[in-house]
Amino acid sequence: MSYRILLVDPCAATTAAAEHALVGAGYRAAAVTTFDQALRQVALDRPDVVVSAIRLAAFNGLHLLIRMRAEHADLPVIVTGHITDFTTDAARFGARFLPTPIDSALLLEQVGELLGGRPPLGPKSDRCWPRRSAVLPATVRNTSAHVVEMSYGGMRLKMDAAAAGDRQPFDVKLPTVGMTVRAVPRWSSPIDDCAEWLCGAELSLPELDDARTWRSLVDSLN
Predict the structure, then answer these.
(1) Are 7 and 30 in contact (CB under 8 A)?
(2) What is the DSSP letter of 194?
(3) What pTM did the predictor assign?
(4) Residue 48 DSSP class
(5) Which bin fits 94, alpha (ψ -120 to 50), beta or left (φ > 0)?
(6) Can you give the pLDDT at residue 193?
(7) In this predicted structure, what is the pLDDT of residue 94?
(8) Fewest CB within 10 angstroms: 11, 46, 134, 163, which?
(9) Which residues share a beta bridge with 155?
(10) Measured between alpha carbons, how far is 204 from 86 in angstroms, rounded to an integer?
(11) What pLDDT is stored for residue 222 in this prediction?
C-alpha cells in the first residue's frame, strides 16, 4: 500500500513537476489549487503528507497549516515558497519549509523523512477511514434505496437495478438524518434475483461543513 500525498498549489507547472517526482518514486499524489479545496480534501480523505504553497490567493499555506493542525495534530506538512517567503512560523506549527522552484530530490528526501516509521493510511491501517454498517432508508433517482455501509468518503447502497446501472452521478436523499449528498457511482453488482443491485459510490461534498457533518454521521454509527 503506497502513501498518498496531497499537493496544494495554484501553479499547474509546479504541481505537475512535484507530482511527476512523487509518482515516479512510488507515491500516490493528488492535487488541488485552493485553500477551500485543500480543507475539503483533508477532511474527506486524510492524506499521509500535505505539500502546500505558501501563497494561496486570499489565504496562504500558514493559514491552511493552522486550520489542519486543529483537527490533525500529527499530519506531516511541507510548506513551499520562494526563499523570501521563508518564515519560522512554519516550523512553529510543525511544518517544514521547501524553497521553490522545488528540487525533486529534496522533496523526495523530506517526504521520506516525514513518513519514516508511519504506516500508510490504507485499507489495512488503523488510521484509515472507518467503515460502518448502516441501515438507512434513502431515495435515489426518485426510487427507494437503502444505505448498507458508510465511510468518510463513500457508501454502499441497495438500489433498483435500473438506477444502479446508470453510471451518472446522483443525489442520495437520507430523510431520517435530514441530509442529501451527491454521489458518483464506482461499481455495481446484482443481488439474488437481480431485482436489487449493490452499488458502491464515492461522495462529492463540495462544502467543508458538509464533509464534517458526514464524518460526524459516520462516527455516530456503531
Answers:
(1) yes
(2) T
(3) 0.61
(4) S
(5) left
(6) 62
(7) 87
(8) 11
(9) 150, 201
(10) 35
(11) 67
In angstroms, the CA 109 to CA 127 distance is 23
pLDDT value of residue 126: 46
pLDDT value at residue 152: 82
Which cell is 42 given? 483533508
Q: Which three cell numbers stand for residue 137?
A: 432508508
C-alpha cell at 173: 436523499
Q: For residues 170 and 163, is the Cβ–Cβ distance under 8 A?
A: yes
**The residue type at 169:** P
Query: First CA to last CA across the chain, in angstroms?
Result: 27
All three cell numbers of 114, joined, read: 516525514
Q: What is the dihedral of CA 102, 106, 108, 113, to 10 degrees?
A: -130
How distant, in Å, are the alpha carbons of 73, 96, 112 from that of 62?
Answer: 14, 11, 22
CB-count burial class (<10 Å; 0-12, 13-18, 19+) for 147: buried
Maximum alpha-carbon separation in the chain: 66
**Which tens digit of pLDDT belongs to each residue from 178-200?**
899 998 887 888 876 667 888 88
CA 133 to chain CA centroid, Å, is 21
Q: Which residues partner with 187 through β-bridges?
A: 200
Pairing state between β 170-174 and 179-191: antiparallel
Residues of the chain with pLDDT under 70: 1, 122-130, 192-194, 222
Distance CA 24, CA 216 (A): 36
Residue 13 is placed in which grid cell? 507547472
CA distance linking residue 138 with residue 123, whole number of Å: 26
The reported pLDDT for the residue numbered 203 is 84
